[in-house]
Each structure stands twice: as C-alpha cells, then as structure tokens.
Amino acid sequence: MSVxxxxxxxxxEQPVGGTCDTRHAWARVPPEPGPxxxxxxKSRIRRLLEERNAVMVSHYYxxxxxxxxxxxxxxxxxxxxxxxxxxxxxPASTLVVSGVRFMGETAKILSPDKRILMPDPDANCxxxxxxxxxxxxxxxxxxPDRTVVVYANTSAAVKARADWLVTSxxxxxxxxxLKDKGHKILWAPDRHLGNYxxxxxxxxxxxxxxxxxxxxxxxxxxxxxxMKEHPGAKVLVHPESPPDVIALADAVGSTSAILKAARExxxxxxxxxxxxxxMHKLRTLNPGKTFIEAPTGGNSATCKSxxxxxxxxxxxxxxxxxxxxTGAHEVFVDPKLAERAKLPIDRxxxxxxxxxxxxxxxxxxxxIGAA
Length: 371
Ligand code: SF4
What we know:
Layout: E1 7-16, E2 19-28, H1 35-51, E3 54-59, H2 64-72, E4 76-78, H3 80-89, E5 94-98, H4 101-110, E6 115-117, H5 126-129, H6 133-141, E7 147-151, H7 156-159, E8 164-166, H8 171-180, E9 185-188, H9 191-201, E10 205-207, H10 220-229, E11 234-237, H11 243-246, E12 251-252, H12 255-264, E13 269-273, H13 278-285, E14 290-293, H14 317-326, H15 335-356
Parallel strand pairs: 3-4, 3-5, 5-6, 7-8, 7-9, 9-10, 11-12, 11-13, 13-14
Antiparallel strand pairs: 1-2
Helix pairs in contact: 1-14, 3-4, 4-15, 12-13
Bound molecules: iron/sulfur cluster.
C-alpha cells in the first residue's frame, strides 16, 4: 500500500527592487510512523550506519527521533556551524545530513570526497529561496565598496559571491571585527538578524530584505501578554525574530546560545522564541525547568504561523533509512563553484576556531586600505 504524503503550500518573501513579493514553495511532510514501524526503522538505520561507514548530523529543528538517533549512534545534533565543523572533521565516508538543503551543500563543499545524503533533498529555507544568485549578484554590483557577508542559510552560488560567511552563533563577532578593520558591509539575506547585528555593533551595513518564515511570525504584543501570565519566566529569542520581539528578550542568540542560557540562567520557566523543534533538546537537558513556546500568529492555519519549519519537518526516519539503503538523494555541488564558496566558509571556521582557542581572531580580518 503506498502512503500519500501531503504537499503543504508555503509562502515566503522574495525581495524585488526594495519591496517584497510573496512567492510560493511547498513542503512534503512525511506521516509519523506507528510505534512498531518506528522501532524497526531505527534498528534498520543503526545497522545501515555501520555497514555504510556513515554518521548522522542533525539540526536542532528536526524531529526528536533524528536528534536522539544521531547522538546515540555517535553523530551530532547541533546548529549549522557545528554541523559543518563536525561533518568536515569526522572520519566517516558518508554523512547523513538531516536539515535543509544549504546544510547538505555546505557539508559537500567542506568534504568533497565524502558522500553527503539528505533524507529529502527538496527541504529548503525561505532565506535561501528568497535570495536568488542573479538578483543578489546585481545587488553586490551596486555596492562594490562593501564587504559581502552572507548568512549560512544561502545557496552555494550565493556563498561563492561572498567574502565572509556567518551563522547566528558567530555573526556578532565577525561583523564587529570587520567594522574594527574599517569594512562597510553588505549583509544578506535575513533582515532581522542583520538589523540586530547592526544595532549591536554600529557597523555600516546595507541589507538584503529576506526573512525566515518561522521566526518572522513571532508577535511582540502576544509575547508581552504571555510574559504577564508568567512573570518569573526568562525570555530567550533567536535574532531572526522581529526587532520588537527581540526587545522583550532576556537573552538573544543562536540555538546553541539559547541552550546555554537555559542551562545557566537562574529561572524555572522560559519562554522560547525559535523553532519548536528546539523544545526537545531544551526539555531533555533541563528536566526540572519548564519551556513555553512564544506566540506566533496563532494556530489558525498556515505553516507560517505554527513555529515549526515545514522544510525541517520533511526529515523523517523513513527518509534516512531510504537514503542509507539506496544511496539516493546524494548532494552534489559543482566543484568550481564549491571551490569559491569554500573561501568564506573557511574564513568563518578559522575565525571561530581562533575565538574558541582564545587567540586574536580579529587578526584574521584584513584592514581596509592596507597595502
Ligand atoms: S527555520 Fe527559517 S531559517 Fe531555518 S530552515 Fe526553516 S525557513 Fe530557513
């Protein structure tokens, strides 16, 4: 009996000449397996990982099963920066990347000799879709004096047009260092994250006008009402959220920073403004604490207002088992494009490695005007 997988219509914004046009994409979310099928799929995956010399790399936003299984089998669940680093450094010849397309592409760019498989290669991201390379290149051409800084959530082609790559866990430090060395910045694609970085650093920045369909939906008024009901709760917000939501936060940061804040802050209750996939890790690591989802537009209808990324939801156990079994859905990136796209990724990885080792990471950023 064949299973019908529903196709969900997803709206996203496409910046056009300073305004935003609404576009449509789709997501195909696999049905939840029953308890027996779930256990069978998990044991099949465990066996196949060994047979294929493969390791799982999962994002915090994917299904809890894919997070737990990755950790249980020696893989990783983390943010996109750590996923990239782990995949590059792990000795396995095959990486199964559960996340969205740019994560698979980044893994391939960093590990061209490894086989990169994705449970569903059509899993995308509104930031990536909303920043097509031709329009983005034209935008860059209008600002030849600016250093091009792009977020990880972009295609390989957009990365190949960039000087620096950042994730939400290192954007502040990298933009700060660039500013200190006299760089004016062209930022893409997330406007909220870019604005947040500008407010924090005072850097001279121009922005691409993209947004994440999940974080863009958090609502400040509803959040402030929820805060009144939970006066002791700390509010943790991902910086892809709108500025009025960020303004209400006790801590702002990447998924890893949110996890750290939840662990370290002296509170029993937390309101979380990021994809609801994060709740699994937050609750597992902090059993005595309560985590409440920040309000979005409501439960009335769309993927845009449910605080869970429809493309992240495309990753499932059956997809992982299928790609391991058949080798389907392998990710390829044109080698010439990959070579150029690797440059900004390597810069970011070197910068963050220096930061982590307590070395002067700013020394890796060239001074503007230096010979
Ligand atoms: S949660 Fe937002 S930024 Fe992350 S993959 Fe989905 S659309 Fe992209």
